[in-house]
Write a structure and sequence with these properties.
It contains eight helices and seven strands, in the order βαβαβαβαβαβαααβ. The chain has 256 residues and is an alpha/beta fold. Strands 3-2-1-4-5-6-7 form a seven-stranded parallel beta sheet, with helices on both faces. The radius of gyration is 17 Å and the shape is globular. The model has no long low-confidence stretch (mean pLDDT 96). Bound molecules: nicotinamide-adenine-dinucleotide.
Length: 256
């Protein structure tokens, strides 16, 4: 069921050219939000905005590398110029390549993971929060992963960055709750997005077997729309008393 919980709100969704970000941008727009799609992928980003506009929603694409402070400042300024406000920030973009154990991780790769996946979320929050305070509040959501609390094999930088994202949301919840800002994280399990299709193609049986062992449900993969539904709840006023938390959406993977 799609409601109008986000009517009149302006939202930024990073990493929305694809996967979870795209599904969430579409969902937010269906619930009434005006959505700014921020991504480094221009083709995918324009396509996400088109998909929304074609079904009558309001969306625009803005090229933004979230690891670059100047890019993020421009994103915030342009969103304010277009919409006059930023009610929702969904900081979802992450660096998903080059996964290694610590000894095999070069400093360059480490810095790329931390730069996009953790500093990228920090920068978006840093530049959005003053405007949310001025407007009397807002809702911040960041995409973590079950890898933010459970160590995955050979994903040292990714998991460390995601653990940082979860703590960052908690510190924002603490520092800005009285200013009307809520901050939460989502921790998906395995979601069937383009990046996972690629992983699955390279290792056709491996992941399905792991997920069959971990999922408590008949279905072993989440769809991006499963995560988008949780995101829409968390950024909406229905979650008005929910802050500083991590919502796990993993089919029960981490329950045992
Ligand atoms: N797919 C999964 O199983 C899964 C599980 C847990 C968490 N996640 C998290 O979900 C989020 C979305 O992942 P997805 O599976 O939809 O992947 P995806 O590859 O479909 O989407 C990621 C998007 O982020 C964009 N991006 C990458 N670097 C960027 C940068 N520097 N600036 C702006 N945009 C950038 C990409 O262009 C892409 O559009 C990520 O934070 C990921 O860590 C995914």
């Amino acid at each position: 069921m799609v409601t109008s919980r986000l009517a009149g709100k302006a939202a930024i969704v990073t990493g929305a050219a694809s996967g979870i970000g795209r599904a969430s941008a579409i969902r937010f727009a269906r619930e009434g939000a005006s959505v700014v799609i921020a991504d480094i992928n221009e083709t995918g980003g324009e396509e996400s905005a088109d998909l929304i506009r074609r079904e009558g929603g309001e969306a625009s694409f803005k090229h933004c590398d979230v690891s670059d402070a100047t890019n993020v400042q421009a994103l915030v300024e342009e969103t304010l110029a277009a919409h006059g406000r930023i009610d929702i920030l969904f900081a979802n973009a992450a660096y998903l390549d080059e996964l290694f154990a610590v000894a095999e991780t070069s400093e360059e790769v480490w810095n790329r993971h931390i730069g996009v996946t953790l500093t990228g979320v920090f920068l978006c929050c840093k530049y959005v929060i003053p405007h949310m305070i001025q407007a009397g509040g807002g809702s911040i959501l960041a995409t973590s992963s079950v890898g933010g609390s459970v160590a995955f094999d050979r994903q040292a930088a990714y998991c460390t960055a995601k653990a940082g994202v979860e703590m960052l949301m908690k510190t924002i919840a603490r520092d800005y709750g009285r200013a009307g800002i809520r901050a939460n994280a989502l921790a998906p399990g395995a979601v069937y997005t383009p990046v996972m299709e690629d992983v699955k193609r390279r290792n056709p049986d491996g992941w399905d077997q792991v997920l069959r062992d971990m999922s408590l449900l008949e279905r072993i993969w989440a769809e991006p729309e499963d995560i988008a539904a949780a995101a829409a709840y968390l950024v909406s006023d229905e979650a008005a008393f929910v802050t500083g938390t991590v919502l796990t959406v993993d089919g029960g993977w981490t329950a045992h």
